[in-house]
Amino acid sequence: MVVLPPLPDATDLRAMKRPVLLLAGEHDTYAPREQLTEYARAFPEARAVVVEGTDHYFWRREREAAVVIGDFVDEALTRR
């Protein structure tokens, strides 16, 4: 079992006034899909994306992860 430090509470996350990308792998033990999507709800503007067929380190799915990140950045920059 992996033990992580406590995450900021929902009040702190709601204060985040920027787009947020939460990215995890399908088999990510640090950020399981259910927890990732639940955590994303605490932000005013968050997107949770799960890359299928990989883990926390995006083993053999680096390109897919890079595309998700690039698309997110492009979208965030064009909305300003």
Task: Quickly list its features.
two-stranded parallel sheet; 3 helices; alpha+beta; about 80 residues; about 15% strand
Explain what this protein looks like in three dimensions.
This protein has 80 residues and is α+β, with helices and mostly antiparallel strands. Helices cover 38% and strands 15% of the residues. It has 3 helices and 2 strands, in the order αβαβα. Strand 1 (20-25), helix 2 (33-40) and strand 2 form a beta-alpha-beta unit.
Low-confidence stretches: none
Alpha-beta classification: alpha+beta
What is the count of β-strands?
2
On the 0 to 100 scale, the average pLDDT is 92
The gross shape turns out to be: flat
Range of helix content: 25-40%
Distance between the termini: 41 Å
What is the H/E order? Answer: HEHEH
Whole-angstrom Rg = 13 Å
Strand adjacency order, main sheet: 1-2
Number of helices: 3
Strand content: 15-25%
Biggest sheet overview: 2 strands, parallel
